[in-house]
Amino acid sequence: YELHAMGDLLPREFFEENPGFFRMNRQGERAADWNLCLSAPGAVEYVCRRAVETARVLKPTTGRYFYWGDDNRPWCHCPKCHSLSDSDQALLLANHLLEALREVDSGAQVAYLAYANTLAPPEKVAPKAGVFLEFAPIHRRYDVPLAAADAKENRGNLELLDANLALFGADTAQALEYWLDASRFSQWKRPSVKIPWSREIMAADLDTYGGRGVRHITTFAVYVDAEYMAMHGEPPVEEYGDLLYRWPAKRG
Ligand SMILES: [Zn+2]
After folding, report:
1. Residues in the 5 Å CB sphere of ion ligand 1
2. CA of 41 to the centre of ligand 1 (A)
3. What does the buried/exposed string (b/e) look like for 45-56 if buried means 16 or more CB atoms within 10 Å of the residue's CB?
């Protein structure tokens, strides 16, 4: 289970009954649109209870839990939350989820998703031991390696990766890449384009992550399905696996 989960953890239908659990927008109104209010008494407990219920049904084999905030959506602007950035609010929730999940799974770890509006590291909230970095550089370029010196988008992402690693540590950190994400390369519109696959770029990216001590590597592969294969043939999944298989063990 690895999803933007807030709509499941705090069902939007619950708004009429308890609007105070929901975020305040910039207009000062409670809104049943995205995320939650972390300062509302009982809201965090409610969401944590739902996360634990989900974990009982969908228990990961790795001990690593991925309950993401809503997809690139704002967090709470109420008087109590507004001094915390989206990143800080997302991490605060991850810290609470960790505590709740550890009551039923003592080895639980919880992802902090660094992505889009939470790509910059949190500044006011510190991660509890057991919260790990998941880094998803959706706005980087894929026609050059992540570490390409002349690509400013990638340079910015790399700087934020390093800033996040300084906070969360590299040992447990995970990259969530887009090398095989046909949906992203298609601007999330079907029919899907062919994945602009480059073995060299992925290999260079692995060195970039590995050189920083990151050993958990994943990629999206949305739209890689029967329709994709009918149009474009075999996707480079085997080559992706082969690169990971041959990736040298951690150096130093
Ligand atoms: Zn709030």
Report:
1. 37, 39, 76, 78, 81
2. 10
3. ebbbebbbebbe
